[in-house]
Amino acid sequence: MSEIELLKTRILKDGKALPGNILKVDSFLNHQLDVMLLHEMGKEIAARFKGDGVTKILTIEASGIAVASLCGLVMEVPVVFAKKNQTANLGGDVYSASVESFTHNRTYNICVSKKYLSSADRILLVDDFLANGRALLGLSQIVEEAGAELVGAAIAIEKGFQGGGDMIRRKGIRVESLAIIDKMDDEGNITFRA
Amino acid sequence: MSEIELLKTRILKDGKALPGNILKVDSFLNHQLDVMLLHEMGKEIAARFKGDGVTKILTIEASGIAVASLCGLVMEVPVVFAKKNQTANLGGDVYSASVESFTHNRTYNICVSKKYLSSADRILLVDDFLANGRALLGLSQIVEEAGAELVGAAIAIEKGFQGGGDMIRRKGIRVESLAIIDKMDDEGNITFRA
């Protein structure tokens, strides 16, 4: 079974579509982590961006870290994770962006120390979920602010019907999602984009 | 060079001892992640707990996730990360503990969904840092609450002079730290425990 089929099969088996367009995949992707599956996903992402000269992966805490780390292992590049709501420990010299969260109905800041992004970098964004695309947008703004090259974005699960992926693609950013969900209904049925 | 020497060498090269007993290692451990180094550390941890029948790794968001994931990959076991300040998404059915943070001078809650820890589990705690030991203590309480077996704790960097590791060891919990720092001075010198 291909890496993508592995993921889709797992979503159908263990994912739970809940009212309010919530997809719970916390048994393998964002609370409990099936790191073997994540490693396979990392291999697939690495294959898709092979030859693009990625020098660094940028993700966002917390649930992006695992898939980004396993992807970084396969691609042999370091991973930087953007922090939410900057702590004093990080120091003041940061790139930052504001992100609207629909899930939590609030706006938060993400930031990355200027030391870890440079204009010489070719950045791949990696995240577990893409829904409204606000987090990815914030990360892409940080890459732009750093003067680095944005190679694209790799996502485990895109909720296609929420439009964020298409919004990001319209900006000319390459988005590779391993599974795109086009429909979830109240009976818990999940339909993937063909 | 052994995995431990790799880590110690890196701490001396890239770590920064700051006033207030702060050790900044955000160039490779908790903001930018050297995933190749973390993988080597995972191999060393796996070797130390080989034969202990670990079924699952438990860590805490956010900076524990990377080292725990790479450790889980080597040990071929799933990883669960405790969430700070429970979100609505997680649902109500959780094990939780209260953790005092000295760095941020506040108390926060950590929680794990009851679905992902069972009395049949043999749990290894993994984290990037051990200082006062409050986070590790909270995780161990959650393991106890779940009725699971606590095999021990594996830590990347222990700040030995802050006493948390010894406090945890006095409770009879096996703690394996890859690097234990016994002294940091105001000139930025770092002394490892022999």
Summarize the structure.
2 copies of one chain form a homodimer. By secondary structure, chain A is an alpha/beta fold.
Describe this structure as you would to a colleague:
The structure is a homodimer of 194-residue chains. Chain A has 194 residues and is α/β, with parallel strands linked by helices. Chain A has one domain: Rossmann fold, CATH 3.40.50.2020. Chain A has five helices and eleven strands. The first copy, chain A, has helices at residues 3-14, 35-48, 64-75, 134-145, 164-170; strands at residues 16-18, 22-24, 32-33, 56-60, 79-84, 94-101, 106-113, 122-130, 149-159, 175-184, 190-192. An eight-stranded mixed β-sheet of chain A has the order 6-7-5-4-8-9-10-11, with helices on both faces. In chain A, helix 2 crosses helix 3. The longest helix of chain A has 14 residues, at 35-48. Chain A is globular and about 50 Å long. The two termini of chain A are 17 Å apart. The model of chain A has no long low-confidence stretch (mean pLDDT 94). At the A-B interface, strand 3, helix 2, helix 3 and strand 5 of A face strand 3, helix 2, helix 3 and strand 5 of B. Strand 3 (32-33) of chain A pairs antiparallel with strand 5 of chain B, so a sheet runs across the interface.
